[in-house]
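Sample entry (169 residues):
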Amino acid sequence: DAWIVLGLILSIIGVASNNGFFTASGVALWLVSGVGWLWNRLSLVGLHYERSLSEVRAFQGETVQLTLEVRNQKLLPLTWLRIRDTFPADLPLADKQLQINSATNLAEFHSFWMPGAYQRIRRTFALTCTTRGFHHFGPATVTTGDGFGFFDSEVQWGAQQRLIVYPRL
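Predicted structure, serialized as tokens:
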């Protein structure tokens, strides 16, 4: 919003003082802000995030494959995409650090993506089943915005997966 106000002020000053530089700067800022706003509005359209587990049941000590996939099914590329996914704190990911929320005993996995036009990106992680029980994955919060950094949008995808870890035999 500050960019729009700044563009308005520059335009008014430029027109009032008959200064071409201020007028052109104000109009350019209006155009860039408009393109950024439209880019932000369209950034979540055609965007899909999917989390999948190779198994829905495992025994304690086994390793399960966790796959995260982002699909951008539109012509508009995304210059940045930040995903904050909720994982069980008891099941560590190999070579990845999870931020644990002590109030909910859930961990947050932060990832950064840059999907281009009509691009699919897939990342696979090894999940060690160290603690038996019924574990929930999700929901995920997806944040993206325009390429200029003026605007951003956030949506929560409530899709959840469950993993049952049985005691070691």
